[in-house]
């Protein structure tokens, strides 16, 4: 009977150690995944900011071109008309 109890105790301790190792590995993998996610989000934010800046520049250029076209189209001064 003592041998059976010792075997059960040894198996339980082995299972507990294995489970803790699994928990530690899962925590490490979760930390690595969180770090990678943070880096990806940072890169996405940078790229989004750059794209928005470029879009703003394009809108500004288009608005300036349109304003110039309106100004030229409504210019009544014969001296400035091409």
The percent range for strand residues is under 5%
Range of helix content: over 70%
- What is the tally of beta strands? 0
Quick one: biggest sheet? Answer: none
Structural class: mainly alpha
Shape: rod-shaped
SSE arrangement, N to C: H
Characterize the structure shown.
- The chain has 82 residues and is mostly helical.
- Helix content is 88%, strand content 0%.
- It is built from one helix and no strands.
- The protein has one helix at residues 2-73.
Map the helices and strands.
Blueprint: H1 2-73
Offer a quick outline of the entry.
This protein is mainly alpha-helical and 82 residues long.
Protein traits:
rod-shaped; 82 residues; mainly alpha
């Amino acid at each position: 009977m003592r041998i059976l109890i010792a075997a059960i105790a040894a198996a339980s301790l082995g299972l507990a150690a294995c489970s803790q190792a699994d928990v530690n590995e899962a925590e490490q993998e979760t930390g690595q995944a969180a770090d990678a996610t943070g880096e990806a989000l940072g890169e996405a934010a940078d790229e989004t900011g750059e794209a928005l800046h470029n879009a703003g520049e394009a809108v500004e250029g288009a608005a300036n071109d349109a304003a110039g076209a309106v100004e030229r189209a409504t210019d009544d001064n014969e001296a400035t008309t091409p």
